[in-house]
């Protein structure tokens, strides 16, 4: 199948960047920002995405819809858009590219397919292409080959199987490490702070754990601005693990750490307005105060 028109919902931090590189490669990229935030509307305009008035227009015009949004909103969007699939003269493909469990992907597939669409399971690994990365879109399911049409257009697409849940599964395992490790760093540094041991622990890390310390000092200050998105992602990972007979408690705890980060004053920032001068230690001090008040 030739993919000529791709719809992006929602054109946020990752979505608008994916839309931009696809557009630059010659794909007609559309979106609908009715009812969306001003930031989302600005990002869509900056990326040069073609606006359509309604979700129904989007489904009718698009060959493929890419759902790229906060995991906790993925299913509600499926329910919102699914009634419009019957308006399309030809089946519209719908790829959920969000960090959700295989169980959630299967539930969304049932809704989309029953509405007349064709569901594709997806998961994104990597950062936005406008930030210098080339994100990998893992896809699976009977129609995963449709998304392969986008491979090499500013993104990498990898089809890994014909079952819905496989692409979501690899994303869950990957994020369990990356975003899960971030919360372990925050937790242990907050504990050290509350015991007055930050300087001593930092010196030990400088001696014996330089790579871990470098990761902590590079990444933690950026976490609060994104914490609201990752609470749900950790909960989806926990559900995935529990369904497989693996303890969910690591990532239930990770979700709690992101809730703490989301309670700091820095959570009001957006990815564009993060204070680049703020250090990891400033962030940990704020989380430590949250822990103190909770205690």
- Average pLDDT reading: 95
- CATH topology of the largest domain: the name is Rossmann fold
Head-to-tail CA distance between termini:
57 Å
CATH class of the largest domain: Alpha Beta
Q: What is the share of helical residues?
A: 40-55%
CATH superfamily of the largest domain: NAD(P)-binding Rossmann-like Domain
Query: Could you give the order of the helices and strands?
Result: EHEHEHEHEHEEEHHHHHH
Class from secondary-structure proportions: alpha/beta
Looking at the overall shape, the CATH architecture of the largest domain is 3-Layer(aba) Sandwich
Tell me what the structure shows.
The mean pLDDT is 95. Helix 2 (38-47) links the parallel strand 2 (28-31) and strand 3. Helix 4 (74-81) packs parallel to helix 5, helix 6 packs across helix 10 and helix 9 runs antiparallel to helix 10. The chain contains eleven helices and eight strands. Strands 3-2-1-4-5-6-7-8 form an eight-stranded mixed β-sheet, sandwiched between helices. With 295 residues, the chain is an alpha/beta fold. The chain starts with a strand and ends with a helix. The radius of gyration is 20 Å and the shape is globular. The protein has two domains: 5-163, 3-Layer(aba) Sandwich (Rossmann fold), CATH 3.40.50; 169-294, N-(1-d-carboxylethyl)-l-norvaline Dehydrogenase, domain 2 (Orthogonal Bundle). It has helices at 13-24, 38-47, 55-61, 74-81, 102-114, 166-194, 198-208, 210-219, 223-243, 249-262, 280-294, and strands at residues 5-9, 28-31, 50-51, 64-67, 93-96, 118-125, 136-140, 156-159.
